[in-house]
Amino acid sequence: MKRLVMFAAACAIAAPVYAQNVATVNGKAITQQQLDQFVSLLVGQGAQDTPELREQVKQEMIGRTVAVQAAQKAGIDKQPQVQQEIELARQGILVRALMADYLEKNPVSDKDVENEYNEIKKAQADRKEYKLRHILVKDEKAAQDLIADIKGKKITFEEAASKHSIDPGSGKNGGDLGWGPTSNYVPEFAQAAESLGKGKMTDSPVQTQFGWHIIRVEDTRPIQFPELAQVKPQLEEMLRQQKLAEYQQKLMESAQIK
User: How far is CA 135 from the centre of its chain?
Assistant: First the structure.
């Protein structure tokens, strides 16, 4: 009777240990902890922790274990190329984990984002947006003739653009390019536009890689800077990348490289 009691007690103690294994593949245990870690990884990527997901993960882990055992039995894990790939994968995982750990310990704060936003906004304070029209033709003589006709009121700028511009986007709209900063355009075009006042047209054709332009400034206004809420995600990511670049630079500087 005493031996029976001792056996029952031993089973009670062993049961939780046995229950920690969700499967055994050719004698190799897949533990509950391993499954939980796999599920946590997927949940961190946006999946929902459900019984169905856990069953899928379990089957995936079993399948992987079977395949890995077969690869090891065939000696594939000893092949130099495979060992190199394994090492590169290991390095990549460690680098990603190191960067994630650094950002977790050195997060980008709301104050950091606000300060960066204000700095950029300040730097952009004197910039303008331009509402432009242009006519694009292949040769200078054609552009000069059109300028003369427009100035002589033989044709309007809009009519000349619709009839003669080879820019398919703006030509059909009377040369209208809409609102935008001059940084949207190639340097020669941008410089010419910035030199014009409101309502003014270039006196001479402007040559760019696309051909010869006649440019008219319809209107100007201070650049419309987006609200902080609109650009906060982009600023956060930019600052995170800056932090990581600075951290990597410090690591390189502190390393003994010969």
Answer: 35
Question: Which domains, ranges and CATH numbers included, belong to the chain?
Answer: 2-77 (no CATH), 79-124+225-258 (no CATH), 128-222 (3.10.50.40)
Is the whole model's pTM more than 0.85, yes or no? no
Centroid of chain to Cα 236: 12
Residues 215/192, Cβ–Cβ less than 8 Å: yes
CB 73 within 8 A of CB 41: no
Q: Which residue do the tokens 């003014």 mark? A: 200
* Residue 181 clears pLDDT 50, i.e. is over it: yes
CB under 8 A, 24+ apart: contacts of 142-149: 142/212, 143/205, 143/212, 143/213, 143/214, 144/204, 144/205, 146/214, 147/201, 147/202, 147/203, 147/204, 147/205, 147/214
59-98 residue pLDDT tens: 999 999 999 999 999 999 999 999 999 999 999 999 999 9
Q: Quickly tell me which residue has 């245990």 as its tokens.
A: 29
d(CA 40, CA 219): 56
pLDDT of residue 19: 53
